[in-house]
């Protein structure tokens, strides 16, 4: 299946609203619930996503589109958002993420990418050479994966008390 920039952008723009809908009504303890000791909370997931929109996705896109010969990406600190957004409420994080996302998609669209642009490459610090198409597909996939993660966290938070119905929920086993 070929990557569709239009579909990817639609998903990227929809993610902030999806996050709001998914977390609407979640009580404060659910927002800080850890499935296990090293697992992220919902607040940490959203902090990570917002931080990615600051220091990861657009900077890497700009590196790929630059005329520089090396086009090397900086490593991404996956937990950097925990520090950047320490003490922020989920509501504040969602507002910031929405603002950043709209700004980034607007910037992405301003490049007026052509199909051949998607073949341009950059150098990931661990994965080596990657294309712009792969990076853009990863951005949308990253959003989907974290939406699924948040859904799983909420399922396990509320599911802790379902008793014998646990057998009907694969996420609780």
What does this structure look like?
The chain is elongated, with a radius of gyration of 18 Å. The protein is 58% helix and 5% strand. The chain is mainly alpha-helical.
Relevant CATH superfamily:
dinb family like domain
* Count of structural domains: 1
Strand order of the largest sheet: 1-2
Number of strands: 2
Beta-strand fraction estimate: under 5%
**Whole-angstrom Rg:** 18 Å
Biggest sheet, open or closed, and with what strands and sense? 2 strands, antiparallel
Assign the CATH architecture: Up-down Bundle
The CATH class label is: Mainly Alpha
Helical fraction equals: 55-70%
Mean pLDDT: 96
Helix count, DSSP H or I runs of 4 or more residues: 7
Poorly predicted runs are none
The CATH topology: Four Helix Bundle (Hemerythrin (Met), subunit A)
User: Can you tell me the overall shape?
Assistant: elongated
Question: For the terminal residues, how far apart are their CA atoms?
Answer: 33 Å
Structural class: mainly alpha
Order of helices and strands: HHHHHHEEH
Write a concise synopsis of the structure shown.
The chain is mainly alpha-helical and 173 residues long. The chain has 7 helices and 2 strands; from the N terminus they run ααααααββα.
Write the topology of this structure:
Layout: H1 5-23, H2 28-31, H3 42-55, H4 57-65, H5 80-84, H6 90-110, E1 121-124, E2 128-131, H7 132-159
Antiparallel strand pairs: 1-2
Helix pairs in contact: 1-6, 1-7, 3-4, 3-6, 3-7, 4-7
